[in-house]
Inverse folding.
């Protein structure tokens, strides 16, 4: 997995671009896949915004496109489910404790 980024408030296309700028290449480098990775994203409006598409065109070697009405094939949902199960064993009573538990796991 790449870097875990915590998002405060609403996620929009410009926040998404900033996350990509700050994390995409670093995560690929940490994983040793900097020249071979493929970015998978669904058809969320922030992923398909023109500004995002232009940024990806110049900064991402390969983007996997999904059909417009595809089923929910997003593999990250399985990861979130597993993280939720694992973090239940922690005694979490604040947002900071949740962030710490998620980062540790």
């Amino acid at each position: 997995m790449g870097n875990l980024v915590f998002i405060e408030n609403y996620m929009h296309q410009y926040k998404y671009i900033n996350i990509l700028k700050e994390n995409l290449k670093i995560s690929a480098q940490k994983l040793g896949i900097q020249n071979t990775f493929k970015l998978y994203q669904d058809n969320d409006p922030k992923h398909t915004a023109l500004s995002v598409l232009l940024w990806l065109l110049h900064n991402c070697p390969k983007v996997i496109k999904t059909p417009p009405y595809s089923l929910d094939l997003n593999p990250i949902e399985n990861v979130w489910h597993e993280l939720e199960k694992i973090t239940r064993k922690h005694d979490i009573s604040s947002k900071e404790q949740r962030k710490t538990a998620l980062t540790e796991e």
About this structure: The first strand starts at residue 39 and ends at 40. The chain is about 50% helix and 5% strand. Helices lie at 13-30, 45-48, 50-59, 76-87, 95-104. The chain has a mean pLDDT of 85.
